[in-house]
Structures are given as structure tokens and as C-alpha cells.
Design the sequence.
């Protein structure tokens, strides 16, 4: 086995677009590795008893999914956890409390993980705009299509002092507001249904976990609301769509900084042209 069976099972379920029944999972593993179905079933039972996996049921079928009753390590020191689960954060970690809802569970969808990992990288590598003294001046972030609010919340916990989360879905706005409250960030984050033109301007960080046709359509508006050298973090598009997206955000107006992909989902960090 190239990695422990527990880790292999968790990785398959964590990174897949599809839902796995126990039998589907057993077939997928035995097709690639020399391990018996009996051992696989035993390890699945252990993962369930450890509250790492749970059964969900749909149309008469039982599926195995990640349990959101425990902290989820996203990477880059970002931990997602349900509001009633305690996690002692380390010195380089932030804890984002997200109540399970219709907006991607607790925010652990692959596209959300990619956006959060790019954000963590950006803060670690000081890619946000700085003033002449070298002090980071990025204090305002915009999260377009905020959903659960997880990106705006993580940005504020990372050091952004003001964020605006926009979403046209009323249900998403209700969930985002509740998650803002859970993280004690009511003074930092504003949730609104306003359009980009009406939401205010001069953002140093723009976050958008959206499908690529929407990202392309937003380029003229995004260009107007960004400070010089602003950081753009986009996620929610497929790897084969990256070239078309970059054609809508061309050099030298936008500089490509970093790209991440996971299970055919892709994300990118861009920087607007500095004056």
C-alpha cells in the first residue's frame, strides 16, 4: 500500500466529486491495491467509530462522507470546525467556526479548500499590497458570492480589518450572517446583496469562488473596485477552463502568482498592476 489504508480512504472521499457507497469504495481500492474487501470494510467501520466518516442516505442508497462533527484541517494553518466543537489553535493556526448548512456543508468543498489555501499562501508570502514603509495596507476584502461566508471570515481572522460578503441568495446571506456571529466578527464583516458597483470600492483583496463564465463576466467590475497591486483569489473553475479565464485577465494588467488544482477543480491567485 502506498499510504495507510485509513488515509487512502479519507483521501478518496475527501477529494472526489462523486459520492461513494461502501461497495464503490471497496471496488475502487481493490482495483488499484492488493488489499482484501474484509480489511477495507473493517477500516471503514473504524473510521465511522472515530467520527471521521458518516453514512448519508439518498434515494435508497447509503453513501460514505466526511464527518463534519470534528475539526477539518484545510492547510496553511486554517482549521474549519463546527461551532460546538472545541479546538485549541496553535500559534500559526486560525479556527473558522462554520455551522453546517446548504452552502457547501461547513465550507469544505474542494473549491473552498483551494481558495483558503491560496489565501493562506498569500498572507504567508506577503503578496498583499504594502505601503512605502513595508507595512501591509490591505484592510478591505470583498467576497463575491460569499455563500457560507467562510472566505470573508478566514480573511478577517488572517488580518483583514474589514470585509464585505455579497450574495444574491437570501438563504446564503442568512447562513453567512450566522457564521459571522459565531466567529465574533460582526464589527468586521458586512453581508449584503448589493452589486459590485453599489457595494463600495478600493479593495485590496477580492475573493470569488464562482464558475468561470461568471468570473469572466465580472472582470470589468473587478477592475474598477481594486486598488493597484490588489490580490485576486479565484476558485470554482475546472483545469481546462484556466486558459480562457486567463485570457479575460491578461498581462500586464494582471500578474499570475500561483495556481492550485485538486480533483480537476482549479484556483488561481492574480495581482492587479501596480502604479
Sequence:
Amino acid at each position: 500500500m502506498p499510504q495507510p489504508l485509513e488515509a487512502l480512504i479519507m483521501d478518496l472521499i475527501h477529494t472526489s466529486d462523486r459520492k461513494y457507497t461502501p461497495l464503490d469504495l471497496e471496488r475502487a481500492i481493490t482495483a488499484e491495491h492488493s488489499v482484501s474487501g474484509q480489511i477495507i470494510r473493517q477500516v471503514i467501520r473504524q473510521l465511522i467509530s472515530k467520527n471521521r466518516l458518516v453514512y448519508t442516505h439518498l434515494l435508497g442508497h447509503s453513501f460514505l462522507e466526511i464527518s463534519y462533527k470534528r475539526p477539518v484541517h484545510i492547510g496553511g494553518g486554517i482549521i474549519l470546525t463546527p461551532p460546538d466543537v472545541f479546538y485549541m489553535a496553535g500559534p500559526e493556526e486560525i479556527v473558522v467556526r462554520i455551522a453546517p448548512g446548504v452552502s457547501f456543508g461547513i465550507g469544505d468543498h474542494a473549491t473552498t479548500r483551494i481558495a483558503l489555501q491560496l489565501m493562506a499562501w498569500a498572507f504567508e508570502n506577503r503578496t498583499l499590497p504594502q505601503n512605502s514603509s513595508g507595512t501591509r495596507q490591505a484592510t478591505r476584502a470583498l467576497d463575491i458570492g460569499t455563500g457560507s461566508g467562510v472566505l470573508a471570515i478566514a480573511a478577517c481572522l488572517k488580518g483583514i480589518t474589514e470585509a464585505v460578503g455579497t450574495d444574491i441568495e437570501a438563504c446564503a446571506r442568512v447562513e453567512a450572517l450566522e457564521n459571522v456571529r459565531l466567529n465574533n466578527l460582526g464589527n468586521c464583516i458586512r453581508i449584503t446583496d448589493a452589486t459590485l458597483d453599489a457595494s463600495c470600492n478600493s479593495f485590496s483583496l477580492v475573493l470569488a469562488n464562482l464558475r468561470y463564465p461568471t468570473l469572466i463576466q465580472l472582470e470589468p467590475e473587478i477592475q474598477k473596485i481594486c486598488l493597484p497591486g490588489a490580490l485576486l483569489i479565484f476558485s470554482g473553475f475546472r483545469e481546462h477552463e484556466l486558459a480562457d479565464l486567463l485570457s479575460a485577465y491578461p498581462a500586464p494588467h494582471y500578474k499570475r502568482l500561483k495556481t492550485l488544482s485538486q480533483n480537476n477543480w482549479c484556483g488561481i491567485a492574480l495581482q492587479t498592476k501596480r502604479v
